[in-house]
């Protein structure tokens, strides 16, 4: 795993191929979330786990990337029906399949876990990452994980780097790191809220 290179004066957010801040949301079409930009942003987010630095986070990263792939595969199979995430899932379910829709369910859970952990940590300057991630895990992924998976994720929480070491890797200007992350996480939270409501709705059930 190569060390992330952050340009001078920039923060980790600038290294993302796609930011959640720039993912189009069509408010007039039921808050439809643009598929390509959303999947690119979710994929970009996983580089955060590289900065966390521990192989213990590999299962978290791989799980999210696997779910992104399920959605991309469906988009490639039926591009005309997949302009936004919600339509992609609705049209897949019409075919009596749910691979991508199930992928979205787990991807949203993974994004919510990451968003809650980082948002809580940014908001509490004295809290260590391990504590923020442990709390977020308990309220997002843990209730859905089997007894075989829980220890794997618990190990990842315990392997979090020290707070100072982590934030130093996100950019030289710590005030800018905090402000960039705050804006980024607010955009992520908005999309998670929209898609969580969708995956929990009747039309996303299989």
TrEMBL record:
Superkingdom to which the source organism belongs: Eukaryota
UniProtKB keywords: Transport
InterPro entries per record: GLTP_sf, Glycolipid_transfer_prot_dom
Residues of the Glycolipid transfer protein domain: 33-171
GO molecular function, one term: ceramide 1-phosphate binding
Pfam family, one: GLTP
GO cellular component: cytosol; membrane
Statement: the UniProt record of this protein carries the keyword Transport: yes
The keyword Transport is annotated on this UniProt entry: yes
Protein name: Glycolipid transfer protein domain-containing protein
């Amino acid at each position: 795993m190569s060390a992330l290179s952050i340009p001078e004066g920039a923060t980790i957010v600038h290294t993302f191929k796609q930011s959640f801040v720039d993912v189009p949301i069509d408010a007039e079409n039921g808050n439809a979330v643009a598929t390509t930009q959303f999947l690119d942003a979710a994929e970009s987010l996983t580089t955060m786990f590289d900065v966390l630095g521990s192989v213990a986070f590999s299962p978290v990263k791989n799980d999210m990337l696997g779910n992104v792939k399920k959605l991309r595969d469906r988009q490639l199979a039926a591009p005309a029906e997949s302009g936004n995430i919600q339509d992609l899932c609705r049209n897949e379910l019409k075919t009596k399949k749910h691979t991508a829709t199930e992928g979205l369910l787990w991807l949203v859970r993974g994004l919510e876990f990451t968003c809650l952990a980082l948002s809580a940590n940014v908001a509490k300057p004295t809290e260590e990452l391990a504590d923020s991630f442990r709390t977020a895990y308990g309220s997002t992924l843990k209730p859905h994980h089997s007894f075989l998976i829980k220890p794997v994720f618990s190990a990842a929480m315990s392997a979090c780097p020290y707070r100072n070491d982590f934030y130093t890797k996100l950019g030289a200007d710590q005030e800018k790191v905090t402000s960039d992350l705050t804006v980024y996480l607010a955009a992520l939270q908005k999309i998670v809220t929209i898609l969580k409501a969708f995956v929990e709705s009747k039309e996303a059930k299989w």
